[in-house]
Amino acid sequence: MDEKKFFNTIRTLTTLVFLSTMLILSGCNPTSSHGTKEVEMGSKQVHEPEPNLPQKLPTPTIQSESSISIPAIQGSYWWGGTCADYASLNFEDNTPVQVLAGEDLSIDMGTDIPPDEISISEFVDNRNAYVTSSDGTFQLPKEPGTHYYGAFVRWSSPQDSQISLGDTSFTFVVRVVEKK
User: Does the pLDDT value for residue 141 go beyond 90?
Assistant: First the structure.
């Protein structure tokens, strides 16, 4: 019974660390909108066209190099003028998918315009460890076990990188197994 209590404590602390990080990174930004950006030039406002992002929130496709699909659980997002802050993300909602140790994993957001930022974190020993990623692709650990991940994805204005056109966050879980 102590092992179960320990696991629940670890899971709770991990979730809190993840939530704190995601809330800081994905705070709702009311200063931008899809389609146009208002810019003041002298005494009049000019509408600058923004990239044509989809109206519907993109859904990540997460896949291993051996073509295994990994489902994601939606987290906080700001998209198309809608802001959703999830107070709690529970890794229990994620079913671990079995993948091979050391495989590459890729995240594709399915948009014509690639995101400007994809931040991936692995949650280990009650802390958040950033994962080195190249355009949403990273290598899974070589150590067998269950690995918990969170991702934050952001699209910025081409005119001002400080203005978010939209962002989203999500979690996923994999069970790494040794290659046979």
Answer: yes
